[in-house]
Amino acid sequence: MLLDVASAPYGALQWLGQFCGVAVPTGAADATARTMILQESQMQRCTPSAVISAVQRHLSGSQEYVLVERVRVDGNSDGYWFIVVVSPEQVIDANQLIADVNAVKPGGLRWVLVQSDPYVWCEAQQEWLNDAMVWTATATTRP
User: Fold this and answer.
1) Residue 35: C-alpha distances to residues 5, 17, 39, 130 (Å)
2) Are 40 and 22 in contact, with CB atoms under 8 Å apart?
3) Residue 59: what pLDDT?
4) Please, are residues 58 and 92 in contact by the beta-carbon 8 Å criterion?
5) Which residue, 53, 56, 39, 50, is CA-closest to 91?
6) Cα dihedral angle (26, 59, 84, 95), rounded to 10 degrees?
């Protein structure tokens, strides 16, 4: 009975929420608490979909974001990093966004939140990568 969201008593919902990474706020309405737990229980922790869900909860409007996996913010490949790029005008609460992503990301992974226009950021990164590839090709090609 305690592990069933539908039949658990209201007093057990905060305890139950911890199993799927949901911090049920003190004083949350019964229906709100149950909905929070049910929505998050469908997401698997430590997956890109869980990170995306955590990000989208704190964005307004069109909820534009970019999740870049296995790359550090300096553009270097790194299997232990990821980047989340969001439009600053759509962020409702950056501190809570960071806390929620930290709650669902795999342990040991590092990440950074970049508040910039996702399209512009991706275009700039692509230009940088193209420039780096041209430079590398030039440096390795003998005249």
Assistant:
1) 9, 11, 6, 46
2) yes
3) 92
4) yes
5) 56
6) -40
In this predicted structure, what is the pLDDT of residue 84? 92
Rg (CA), the chain: 20
Which ranges of 59-93 does DSSP label H, i.e. alpha helix? none
d(CA 143, CA 141) in angstroms, rounded, equals 6
Q: In the chain, which ranges are continuous DSSP H helix?
A: 13-17, 30-41, 48-56, 94-104, 118-140
**What local confidence, expressed as pLDDT, does residue 96 receive?**
93
- Please state the pTM of the whole predicted model: 0.61
The predicted pLDDT at position 123 comes to 59
User: Are 101 and 79 contacting, i.e. CB atoms less than 8 angstroms apart?
Assistant: no
pLDDT of 137 over the 70 cut = no
Return the amino acid letter for 98. I
Q: 7 burial class (0-12, 13-18, 19+ CB within 10 angstroms)?
A: exposed
Question: Region 54-79: what's the mean pLDDT?
Answer: 88
Token reading at 100: 């929620």
pLDDT at 92: 93
Torsion angle in degrees (nearest 10) through CA of 90, 94, 99, 103: 20
| pLDDT confidence of residue 4 | 84
